[in-house]
Amino acid sequence: MNFKNILITLLLCANSFLYANSFDNIKKFAQDICDNIDPNGSIKLTEIEAGIAGNIKPLSKILGIKFEANGTFKIKDESYTGLPYDSLPAQMIDSRRCKQELAFMLLEQKSIIDKKQDVNIIHYYLESKHNSSVHIFGQPMTLKNITKRKKICEVESGTSAEKISEHKNKNGDFVKIRVLNGTCQSKMGWIGKSDLHIKQKD
Description:
Elements: H1 3-14, H2 16-37, E1 43-44, H3 45-53, H4 56-63, E2 73-75, E3 78-80, E4 91-92, H5 95-116, E5 124-126, E6 133-137, E7 151-156, E8 160-169, E9 172-179, E10 188-192, E11 196-198
Antiparallel strand pairs: 1-4, 2-3, 5-8, 5-11, 6-7, 8-9, 9-10
């Protein structure tokens, strides 16, 4: 089982009744999008974006939000720039890979949206003990990718963030986050767990 399949399993187990139903709907949506583009050949990210744009109403129902004409949406008056397409590969080798990547991205978005709509959500901010900024990467650090990880963005200390999931390996504890403000708003990626801090309530 690969890393993304493990995270899907963890998301489903977190709330089996809610996410099992959501996953079925998301799985079918991803299948319709990817198979409609090309059920046999390679698929480009731009083709997926176009397919979703043409099916935004059913996706809105699945995710429980309303998309604006420009692809943005709001949760409790907080604006989001749209779906994190940059988390998907620029090109996928076939429809099967397309369905897996798209379903994972949408299920993760469903989890984020549901947590954001929860009044008891915990608010976080980013701060490094060693630097004035925090680097966000595409993957948790491992021995294999320690010098090859893709840097998604760099944010100033104090930037608000949302915790999505956690991962632990021999190199330490890591968390996947979504940036909530600043120049990297809506970007998602991995940081060291020690760089994520809980905001104190006023």
